[in-house]
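Weekly structure sync, notes
Attendees: PL, DS, HV (note-taker this week)

Item 1: ABC transporter permease subunit
DS walked through the input record. Source organism listed as Paracoccus litorisediminis. Sequence as pasted into the shared doc:
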Amino acid sequence: MASFIIRRFAQAMVVLLVMSLLVFAGVYVIGNPIDVLISPDATQAIRQQVIEQYGFDLPIWQQYLHFLQRLLTGDLGSSFVFNMPVATLIAQKLPATLELTLIAVLFASAVGIPLGIYAGYRPDNIAARVIMAASILGFSVPTFWIGLMLIMVFAVQFGILPAGGRGETRALFGVPFSFLTLDGWSHLILPALNLSLFKMSMMCRLAASGTREVMLTDTIKFARAAGIAERTILRRHVLKLISIPLVTVFGLELGSTLAFALVTETIFSWPGLGKLIVDSITSLDRPVMVAYLMLVSALFVVINLCVDLAYAALDPRLRHGGQ
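Item 1 (cont.): predicted structure, written out as tokens:
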């Protein structure tokens, strides 16, 4: 098991190094931040002073080495626009995005997996057909349209939920969270529901297809022949056999939801990383853009590493290279 973890960790480090090179090269060929940092009326001497101050006069490979050196020491640089450390800026916005993402993915899993198992267990049932038909809508309808409809129905027509904002927060270990207050929950319900619908549909269809496949295996036939109750079969056998693809989707969707919560945060005015990265792209705030992309890359790598470890825990054959 130790060698398995070491191999996966080494692979994760290589991926992060490659991603740092791609992110840096991709961001630093976009536009010229000097045009944003100083007035167009500035003299050439002032422009040259700012270029040297930020190291833009160095060759691109030297800028990358300096960036990599700062990254290894935890220094993400300072924002050109906000004039503050990028790490501090991201730390202020990250809790809101993490809270929204985790609640959305957990809700999608808690609802989608049981519905999918039921639909796969009784595929000819009317309720199962309704579930599968509804899951198609989750894939088909755009997220922004669903968000607007949720606001129109629950905030405008009925007036029972707020249309945007984060609401009242309460600190937990010094970090503000909305789920700790009733007002925070009222602001959290609509964006979390909007963000979870696509994930819920995916979980539902994956669980349904996996359940239908597992129900035809000899394992289930022998369990029924032994007189084991259907509820026990579903809990101990079916759920265990379909757990590996579900863990995969859960991990990948957690990362993608965190990275692409931009639309939902924009619609519901949720003060997370989405608005920050949009403002940074508009103003060519390179340190914030690079830090955000590296953060997303690191989260994907960490989540995939955790998924691999979960694989090894669920299937011991994977710890030994399939032997």
